[in-house]
Structure formats: structure tokens, C-alpha cells
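Posting for a labmate who doesn't have an account.
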Amino acid sequence: MELKKIREMSEAELNAELSKMKKDLFNLRFQHVTGQLENPIKMRETKRDIARVKTIIREKELAKVQG
């Protein structure tokens, strides 16, 4: 997911996207354990996307507090 696209989302959209990504990561982990995961790099990408979304959420929280 592109950073520009993430920054344009509202807080509700970010939280919805975060929960969707966490579900996706759970499913990827499950596939990995059962040996059905075709692209293991997808797990790394999903983890990084989750971190990006969490960072943007935190930035918006800090911006709200500061001004």
C-alpha cells in the first residue's frame, strides 16, 4: 500500500484497514504453518504495511494533541 494513500485516509478508515491487515497476517501465518503459503514475502510486506498504518495513526494522534 502506498504511503500517500495511507496518509489521506481518515482515522476510522485507518483503523478498519489495520484490522483487515491483521486478519490477513493471521491467515498468512496459518497458511505458512500448514505449508500452503505460495509467497512467503507476502508476510513481510503485510507486517510492514501494518507498521506503516500504526505509524500514521500515531502521527495523527500527536498532531491532534499538539495543535
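Reply:
Got it, the C-alpha cells are right above this. DSSP finds three helices and no strands in the chain.
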